[in-house]
Amino acid sequence: METSRAVFNFLFLAYCDAYDALDPTGNITIKWDVISWTPDGYVAVVTMFNFQQYRHIQAPGWTLGWTWAKKEVIWAMMGAQTTEQGDCSKYKGNIPHCCKKDPTVVDLLPGTPYNHRLQIAARGDPESPYLASVVAGANKNSYAPLVQCTSHMCPIRIHWHVKLNYKEYWRVKVTITNFNYRMNYSQWNLVVQHPNLDNLTQIFSFKYKPLTPYAAINDTAMLWGVKFYNDFLNQAGPLGNVQSELLFRKDASTFTFEKGWAFPRRIYFNGDNCVMPPP
């Protein structure tokens, strides 16, 4: 048995992208259903479906925005609320919930009664409002990263350590460290692309699912924590890390430690790209 101490650190870099080659059919679908008509408008139910395999909306929740085609207003909402009311000064007595032409809608706080989670009552023309954006929400006062002082000042680090080199196998230790004092990552996931994943023999303390966007090529894996054990990545501090080990069978025709072959080609944390830090 030979040992090796080759190590790579990947740092978390948040970004937004419309298409992901590793999840080619992933999308967020928005349905706008008019379910009844009123004398001056209609009642609609708006439903969002997340069909992405490894991107989910982190706390504090989703944000949905659109632009009205004409002079519609939102009289009442259940299940969500707008961030601003806008100029409703022309209305007397019964005041609309929101008069903005481009309302921004956010999720309700946890613990809201279920009878408040239903529908939107809008006034005006129901004709396919333009859906301007669907993005992960962020309250800058509460959720802006407060990062532990490090040389890289990044909120997440993925540590890929080539730990052991056997005759027919090789072993990797993966550690995810949270340096963000303001974020507990619940139900996190890690997507790894490496040519030897087709010979992954055993994985310890993480769950594993192969992703095969190119059908016959099995070089991409989604890893996530075991429920109630390590699926919750606490904020920076002693409990701010999770780790696992991966055992690979060697393919003699391709295996090498030269030119960085043993390290991932691509790393995603919660669907966001992780990159090597600058030298």
UniProtKB/TrEMBL annotation:
Domain of life of the organism encoding this protein: Eukaryota
Membrane topology summary: Lipid-anchor; GPI-anchor
Start and end residues of each COBRA C-terminal domain: 136-277
KW Glycoprotein (keyword) present: yes
Keywords: Glycoprotein, GPI-anchor, Lipoprotein, Membrane, Signal
InterPro entries, alphabetized: COB_C, COBRA_pln
Signal sequence region: 1-18
Pfam families linked to this entry: COB_C, COBRA
GO biological process, one term: cellulose microfibril organization
Localisation per UniProt entry: Cell membrane
GO cellular component, one term: side of membrane
Record PANTHER family: PROTEIN COBRA (PTHR31673)
Family: Belongs to the COBRA family.
Protein name in the entry: COBRA-like protein 1
